[in-house]
Amino acid sequence: MTAKNFSTLAAVIFALAALVQLARAALGWPVSVGGFTVPVAASWIAFVVLATLSVLGFRAAR
């Protein structure tokens, strides 16, 4: 696997994860981990981080 292919694959995975976090935040899906309810604000933060990593991955693939 070349570095370009790896960067593209990582960027796509980060983009998909960002979309899931965006959907969770927008629709208010509840998430519990070990009895602890994760606040929706965490999904907004995760969306920003994952979207940024995706953009950086696509830029690195160029």
Please provide a written account of the structure:
- With 62 residues, the chain is mainly alpha-helical.
- The chain has one domain.
- It contains 2 helices and 2 strands, in the order αββα.
- The protein has helices spanning 3-27, 40-61, and strands at residues 32-33, 36-37.
- The chain has a two-stranded antiparallel sheet.
- The mean pLDDT is 95.
What radius of gyration results from the CA coordinates? 14 Å
Q: Helicity, in percent? A: over 70%
Order of helices and strands: HEEH
Task: Give the count of helical stretches.
Answer: 2
Shape: elongated
Output the structural class.
Answer: mainly alpha
Biggest beta sheet summary: 2 strands, antiparallel
* Overall pLDDT score: 95
Separation, N- and C-terminal Cα atoms: 15 Å
Q: How much strand? A: 5-15%
Total tally of structural domains: 1
Strand order of the largest sheet: 1-2
Instruction: Give the tally of β-strands.
Output: 2
Task: Name the poorly predicted regions.
Answer: none
